[in-house]
Design brief:
The protein is mostly helical. The chain has one domain: Cytochrome p450 (Orthogonal Bundle). About 55% of the residues lie in helices and about 10% in strands. It is built from twelve helices and nine strands. The strands form four sheets. A three-stranded antiparallel beta sheet has the order 1-9-6. The protein has a two-stranded antiparallel sheet with strand order 2-5. The chain is globular and about 60 Å long. The termini are far apart. The structure holds protoporphyrin IX containing FE (HEM). The site of protoporphyrin IX containing FE (HEM) has 22 residues, from helix 7 and helix 12. This is Cytochrome p450.
């Protein structure tokens, strides 16, 4: 049964993701990412108060996530970043995706009573999945048949919160470092921006751990773990361990650059895995790795970003999420 499931998954994965995640598709899409990032900057200017503060940054970054994913998957701009406000469908989709993550957390990590009867979290899981499916179908009503064959629903839902939350974490860390912002704004070398993103994934990973159902028995530190059990690999904890990284709690993009880089890399293989690894690795990885630097650079070239709180509060919602509301200041960079 497990084998059939894996084969079905492998077939779907190979056929559904290759068009959308190919280097050609992503390369042609990058100018759109710049345009979408400009719209986010305009929206921030529209919504910020007199003290330059945005009251709920996470709502704007999730709207960005939705706009980016829909544009990639459906091939047309949806207008989710227009200042008129969030459309009804965008709001319902964002909420359904949020409920879905919460019910995944509760069914996955809570007591598995849902295997015996329909618990509230199981019902939420089913309902939110159905909502996401119906709302995504409403969105794709005008898409052509070829587009509909792709993994539309999964892709749109997977991108909204992962991208949105990652961007909030990234901005919260660079908000404390005006020198880093200067460097991003003025440095043409994209390696620096990539180093900031890597360092964010190390300190505030959106996916804190990786999970696998064992296909074969496995011996771990002298303990035999039987096939069929779930093994959770705590990469997030490993990334904060001083045995693996020096000054582990500090935001130091420099550790991924120049001479420091080889030292960091020799100790970090298989520790920093923000998109997982192996055949189940995130199909959105390449897309995010190329889009996020564009979005970050646009924001930092437009604004000096600051944040009053020491750290962003985080809650576990299957993925890691900033606790709402996140208030940050966006002052024009002239
Ligand atoms: C910052 C953004 C993102 C992060 C941090 C992230 C992270 C992850 C991680 C850790 C996994 C599990 C990998 C594993 O178990 O080895 C995963 C799976 C997945 N991701 Fe992402 N992801 C992001 C964005 C996206 C985007 C934009 C898409 C859509 C194109 C996407 C689609 C998926 C899908 C469909 C899976 C399930 C893959 C499978 O099991 O075959 N993700 N992601």
């Amino acid at each position: 049964m497990e084998k059939i499931r894996s084969e079905t998954w492998a077939h779907l994965r190979a056929n559904l993701t290759k068009d959308i995640t190919s280097p050609q598709t992503i390369a042609t899409f990058l100018p759109q990412v710049t345009a979408i990032s400009n719209d986010l900057c305009a929206l921030i200017k529209h919504f910020r108060q007199n003290d330059n503060k945005i009251g709920q940054l996470e709502l704007l970054t999730r709207r960005l996530g939705l706009e980016v994913m829909c544009t990639l998957v459906l091939g047309r701009r949806m207008g989710f970043l227009l200042p008129e406000g969030e459309t009804d469908i965008a709001r319902r989709l964002r909420i359904a995706v949020h409920h879905h993550f919460l019910s995944c957390r509760d069914t996955y990590y809570g007591l598995p009573l849902w295997k015996l009867f329909h618990t509230p979290s199981y019902s939420h899981l089913i309902d939110s999945e159905e909502d996401i499916y119906n709302l995504a179908l409403e969105l794709v009503a005008n898409a052509d048949e070829a587009t509909k064959e792709t993994a539309i629903v999964d892709f749109i839902a997977s991108g909204i919160h992962t991208l949105g939350n990652t961007l909030v974490f990234l901005l919260s860390l660079i908000s404390k470092r005006k020198d880093v912002q200067e460097e991003i704004a003025n440095n043409e070398n994209s390696e620096y921006v990539k180093a900031c993103i890597k360092e964010t994934f190390r300190l505030l990973p959106t996916a804190f751990c990786l999970a696998r159902v064992l296909e074969k028995d496995l011996e771990l530190s002298g303990h035999l773990v039987k096939a069929g059990n779930v093994v959770v690999c705590q990469t997030g904890l490993a990334c904060r361990d001083p045995e693996n990284f020096s000054r582990p709690d500090e935001f130091l993009p420099e550790r991924w650059l120049g001479e420091e880089k080889s030292k960091t890399l020799s100790s970090s293989t298989f520790l920093l895995l923000p998109f997982g690894c192996g055949k189940r690795q995130c199909p959105g990885r390449r897309f995010i790795e190329q889009s996020l630097p564009v979005i970050l650079k646009e924001l930092v070239q437009n604004f000096i970003i600051s944040y009053d709180k020491k750290d962003v509060d985080i809650s576990f919602e299957f993925i890691m999420a900033p606790v709402s509301p996140v208030q940050m200041s966006f002052e024009d960079r002239s």
